[in-house]
Amino acid sequence: MLDGISKSTNDADESYSLHGSPHEELGESAVSNSPDISVCSSLDTECSQSASSTTSGHAGSHNAPLQQQDHSPSYLDKIPTEPQIRVAHWARIGAYVRECYEKGKICDIQFHVEKETLLAHRAPLCTVSPYFASVFYENDYLNSKPMAEVRLNGITMQSLKVFMDFVYTGKLEIVLPVLLDLVKISDLFEIPEVKQRCVRQLDFLPEEDLVWLLVAVREHTGLHFTEPLLHCISDKFLTVCNSQGFLELDVDTLCLILSDDRLLTRTELDVFRAALRWIHHNASLRSQFLETVMATVRFPLMTQRDLFECLDTFSLLGINQQCLDMIYKANW
């Protein structure tokens, strides 16, 4: 999980570091308005006030101009109506900045991931990330420093490079190993477009990968991606429930899927059969969860014939009083 960012500076440069506590202080500090990020300074009160002004979006000598700029159209908004020659000019600038990134030239920010370092530019980051814009563009003191350092924990260098390709080109190559990292980056740096593209990518993933992702997301508290995954799994339920990954689910994740009212099925018998396959996959261990799993099946939606089929198919139902009560109640 991506944690907060803290900053320490000296006379030459500045450093940002991701840490566990969103309000960890290093001397004088200012806390970002994001619950997962804190921007801290160990220099002086003036710097702390500057950083605090940055995160709040109010107070400070630049308050009025910034508000006026926020309400005016950006250059990106004007692109469709701009003359072609001007758009071509911007494209040349973008291509040059991209070339500088690839060659590590004229860079003013360093990302540290594990033991690797990646050089980049603040300006492109500010165009896609309101977080970086608030930290660098709107803060004169921080913007005056020649080099900033950002330390990221919990993501891979491969994921960071995929994100940087998006920053410089708009292209986002989403593959399974980096998908959840991109969701983390999207949340941390306030870039909803990245998460939206990840959501769209779910439709093209195999059923096994969807199940694996759901388990992985549930293991990462604070990663808000469960709902899109459940929606996609519900749309593909009839194939998902036949996958090997589905049979190996833990009982809580299984019940989370089976209880989703958006499941696309032919009849509720499909849900019952999926639950039955999961139990039979390891009956000696899973029979203890019979009542919990069957509680996710909507027996009242079944016909009388379907209910009798459930009893005939699974003998354990006939000797479990709570399961029998569910079926009898549904038959009333």
- End-to-end span in angstroms? 49 Å
**Could you tell me the number of beta strands?**
7
**Radius of gyration based on Cα positions:** 26 Å
Helix-strand pattern, N to C?
EEEEHHHHEEHHHEHHHHHHHHHHHHHH
**Strand order, largest beta sheet:** 1-2-7-5-6
CATH architecture of one domain, by name, is 2-Layer Sandwich
Q: What's this entry about, in short?
A:
By secondary structure, the chain is of the alpha/beta class.
Overview of the molecule:
The protein has a domain at 1-189: 2-Layer Sandwich (Potassium Channel Kv1.1, Chain A). 56% of the residues lie in helices and 9% in strands. The chain contains 21 helices and 7 strands. It has helices at residues 45-56, 63-70, 75-78, 84-103, 122-128, 130-137, 140-143, 157-169, 176-188, 192-201, 207-219, 226-235, 237-240, 244-247, 251-258, 268-281, 283-286, 290-294, 304-313, 315-319, 321-331; strands at residues 4-9, 14-19, 29-30, 39-40, 109-113, 116-120, 148-152. The strands form 2 sheets. The chain has a 5-stranded mixed β-sheet, with helices on one face. Strands 3-4 form a two-stranded antiparallel sheet. Helix 5 (122-128) crosses helix 6 (130-137).
